Amino acid sequence: MARFQRKGVTKILFVETIADAGYMPTSVELTGGTDYSRQIAAVDGFSLENQMIETPDMASTFVSKISGDDSAADSSITFYEDLTLDDIESDLAKGTTGFIVICRKGMNPASPGMDVFPVAVSSNSAAITLDNEAAKIVVAFAITDRPLFNAAIPAAGGG
User: Fold this and answer.
1) Cα separation of 108 and 97, whole Å?
2) What is the dihedral of CA 18, 121, 130, 132, to 10 degrees?
3) Cβ–Cβ < 8 Å for 117, 97
4) What is the Cα–Cα distance from 112 to 148, expressed in whole angstroms?
5) How far, in whole angstroms, is CA 124 from its chain's centroid?
6) 18 closest CA partner among 3, 33, 40
7) pLDDT 10s digits, 19-65
8) How far apart are CA 69 and CA 52, in angstroms?
């Protein structure tokens, strides 16, 4: 098994529109997206969580469980703030809708590991601190529908 480090490999993009109802982007849609990978300081969430249902019965003192509803984890991306540009503030303003595309294994055509999250920006706030660190902006996202997981990166010119 070839192990790898996400830094330098994983790409995170914001794509405004994806035509496919199942959220599978075309190569043209991916190319038209904004690659924010170099501006990202931290990523939180962007996963599904399951709300287990307890199913006790009279025959046992053990409380078994079954799978319940799925929901999205609270999700956010922390970006480095630019001293002169306001791309993050304007492009990802509160209310903006689109798709966060996480290419976990890079952007090589046909490689697996592409996750697509339909999102709405729920907040965009500067992180103000006196600590000795780079200025940052935290953008929180509401995941609005079931994401597409582990899709293959589309070939150039293909869907």
Assistant:
1) 26
2) -10
3) no
4) 12
5) 15
6) 33
7) 999 999 999 999 999 999 999 999 999 999 999 999 999 999 999 99
8) 7
The total number of residues shown for the chain amounts to 159
Strand partners, 127: 136
- Please report, as a single letter, which amino acid is at residue 82: D
The β-bridge relationship of strands 64-66 and 114-127 is unpaired
**What is the rounded CA–CA span in Å between residue 7 and residue 5?**
6
- Tens digits of per-residue pLDDT, 133-157? 999 999 999 999 999 999 999 987 6
Query: Nearest Cα to 76, choosing from 136, 145, 24?
Result: 136
Q: How far is CA 73 from CA 58, 68, 114, 121, 142, in A?
A: 34, 15, 18, 14, 9
Cα–Cα distance for residue pair 54/66, rounded to 1 Å: 7
Tell me the sheet residues that pair with 71: 49
